[in-house]
Amino acid sequence: MREFVFALEYEPGHNGVADTLADHPDARIRSLSLHATDERLWRVDHATGTRTALADIEAAFRDSDYYADCLATEDCGATQTTQVLDRTDDTLVLYSDWERTPTCASVPHIARDHLGEGILFETRHEGRHYTWRIVHSGEGDVAAFFDALEAAVGDCARMEMLRAATAETDAPTGDANGGASDLAPEQEAALRAAVEHGYYESPREVDAGELADHLEVPRSTLTYRLRRAEERLAKGYVAGERPVDGPAASL
Fold it and tell me: Helical H runs in 90-141?
């Protein structure tokens, strides 16, 4: 089995859910289940946030201009049904069913085209960053998948590769407690710059905006990379093993 993890960073106005999450920085969405056939896509998502954030997330999912994971740049004419499966003050579970049209494209459908069937998908949505973890048989053409995905995404989002590995048999590398060598290159660069410029000093010698300017990346991109790096290192330290071995750690 092979796996890879990548993130799409959406530009404003191109993904209703990304725009909503950008307005609610503390809200998160993760997939509980995601399946696709040639004609359909259906998924269950777990969202957390304030009551206002969850109401806005639900509205974004129900918006007629948004179809779960569709990459079409214009109205593709798809039919989507969204239902609330569970709701509390700070959580929301949504079921979405999407019937594809000839003009639709999505990450799962492009993956099926180039990697075959029997693919597993996990997603996490934070702000404008939409992170995908894909586990597949190892057959197919991964390079063709990314070429097709890049063409479908166009100018709507920037793609960032975070990890590519053998899902079950990769030997640990670096520090067994989750050293910096286990991080994606962009995450490691952000973490090293943060340490070197005093971001983790108390009081801080540089804020996130200044550090982002130094690295020439948007502030949201910097904070996203630092959160992912901190998560991997913290989980690795507590578990005493490489954090990427568990499925949740890959995102």
Answer: 107-115
